[in-house]
Hints:
alpha+beta, 3 domains, three-stranded antiparallel sheet
Amino acid sequence: MIKRIYVRTRSLKEGMKIDQAIVDRRGRILIARGAVLDGYLIDSLLKLGVTSVYIREGEEDPEEEKISPLAQSVIEKRRVEDRTKVKLKESVKKRVSEGIQYLYNNTETKDFTDAANNIGNELMRAITDNDAIAVDIGALKVSDEYTFKHSVDVATMAMIVAKQHGLDKKQLYEIGMSGLLHDLGKSKIPNEVLNKPGRLTDEEFEIMKQHSVYGYGILKEKENISKHVLMGVLQHHEKMNGKGYPMGVSADQMHLYAKILSVVDIYDALVTERSYKKAFSQRDAVEMIMSMTQELDLDVMKSFLESMILYPVDSIVQLSNGEKAKVVENNPGYILRPTVVGIESGKIYNLGKDMKCNNIIIL
């Protein structure tokens, strides 16, 4: 049974699920209802002066109890662990997020490059410690502009996509730095534009479009910032068809880092809620990315789809044929179509490779 209880913020524990949305004065969602609290979010609530919140306790009957013996037998035989996924410890998320906030608020500091390198090294260690080659995009998604975690999400995804794409360790580090710093120029955008609660006017959007130029300008004056990092920051809103900004360059003039950042930045923006739009589901966001064949690099898109996990093994999903099923194996390259087993029938559905399953989708 699910219960809703009122808890003092100082009594919150990591792992609790918040049962209300936390918004700022302009109505922007800072923490979504249903979010699982970690140390960083609890600390943020305290800093915001939120003294108490509603917490959701208990769960509905677990789906595991409804799995038939036949299905359980099939699941045990067919289950294949997901590829090694990146796992960011809460302490790492906190340090990296706070580090990014420091850099964005102190662009003129003398220790900027050293601080940026320290943050980049920390994220690089988190990526390489367990030799991660995939991202559970559901577990990763924690971002909003208020906490600066958007930059952490983008950097993390970009590094994994770059690894799938065949880039070496130096390049992984550089694209991680580009991801962490890609929105640095927003520190130069007027607050009334940057923090506007609704959609921007055409004139305001023209101002906002300059943030990548501002970021490039800030970073090119710093010592020991790679020119490749600079190009990733400058061009992350450019498009393959030349319809991006700030310069409208096309495919042959875009740096590879920018091509990778473009994909992951768009994905993260789609699944992030704003006061003027609801967040897209992860599935819908992936489908939108897949449809952007004129704007995004197809090889990079392929690397994105092959390194992201949308339905982790052991997830319970609803199929369009009316049956519930358990994910037993993910098929690289078929992010929307894993292999699943019906939890009552025990029937195997290889959604990615079995032609007989073409008309079945996960709802």
